[in-house]
Amino acid sequence: GNSVTQMEGPVTLSEEAFLTINCTYTATGYPSLFWYVQYPGEGLQLLLKATKADDKGSNKGFEATYRKETTSFHLEKGSVQVSDSAVYFCALSDSRGGFKTIFGAGTRLFVKA
Amino acid sequence: IAGITQAPTSQILAAGRRMTLRCTQDMRHNAMYWYRQDLGLGLRLIHYSNTAGTTGKGEVPDGYSVSRANTDDFPLTLASAVPSQTSVYFCASSPDLGETQYFGPGTRLLVL
């Protein structure tokens, strides 16, 4: 079946450091891939997405590239800010999975000033 | 535009009591979802609906029921609450199944 695996947290970085959060997936079809972010006390919100191989999603300085050959969708940001402290979820939806969205376990990011 | 709203914001409930969590969206989305989020376990899908009048079971449906009488509302009912149902509950909607989901602010439920 479909699954999403993302790196365990928490990840602690200093402000302006480079961020990578790894995400790999297993899917039987050609899934759409998503990164959602959850700020403290709030619901999840879409950060970026990619719908086909080699697409790059980007938003708020974050980027992720859909790599079919490595079944990965790693999240990157060149210079993190304290306000980026949140939990990040990788997710996929696949037509062969009935389009149900599968979420990873989440990675908590702490950014120190 | 309100988006998606949930009520109540939080609730303390005695075990054995019946409780309905409300969820309303004004985006005319076809699909709606209920998730629970427990510490360290990420999101788990309880029930979903891909259009008004139809519902489906998610990963952890036991002890919960839903209905989808119209496009906008998707209430979640706990028929007889148990302490293991203590969690944060999120409702979400998307234009159709598998598309970007929009989440409500959550309901924090404590069952004693």
Describe the protein.
The complex is a heterodimer of chains A (113) and B (112). Chain A is mostly beta strands. Helices cover 0% and strands 50% of the residues of chain A. Chain A is built from no helices and 12 strands. Chain B has 112 residues and is mostly beta strands. Chain B has no helices and 11 strands. Chain B has strands spanning 4-7, 10-13, 19-25, 31-38, 42-51, 54-57, 64-66, 76-78, 87-94, 102-103, 107-111. In chain B, strand 5 (42-51) and strand 6 (54-57) form a beta hairpin. The N and C termini of chain B lie far apart (36 Å). The A-B interface holds A 32, 34, 36, 42-46, 49, 89, 93-95, 98-101, 103-106 and B 33, 40-43, 45, 48, 58, 90, 92, 96-106.
Give keywords:
heterodimer; A: 113 residues; mainly beta; six-stranded mixed beta sheet; four-stranded antiparallel beta sheet; 0% helix; globular; B: 112 residues; 11 strands; 52% strand
Instruction: Give the uncertain stretches of chain B in residue-range form.
Output: none
Strand content of chain B: over 45%
Which series of helices and strands of chain A comes N to C? Answer: EEEEEEEEEEEE
Shape of chain B: globular
The averaged pLDDT of chain B comes out at: 95
> N-to-C terminal Cα separation of chain B, in Å?
36 Å
Average pLDDT of chain A = 94
Number of strands of chain B: 11
Q: Approximately how much beta-strand content do the residues of chain A carry?
A: over 45%
User: Whole-number radius of gyration of chain A?
Assistant: 14 Å
Work out the helicity level of chain B: under 10%
Write the element-wise H/E pattern of chain B from the N-terminal end onward.
EEEEEEEEEEE
Quick one: biggest sheet of chain B? 7 strands, mixed
Q: Uncertain runs of chain A with pLDDT below 50, 5 residues or more?
A: none
Please report the number of helical segments of chain A: 0
Oligomer: heterodimer
Q: Largest contact between protein chains?
A: A-B, 21 and 21 residues
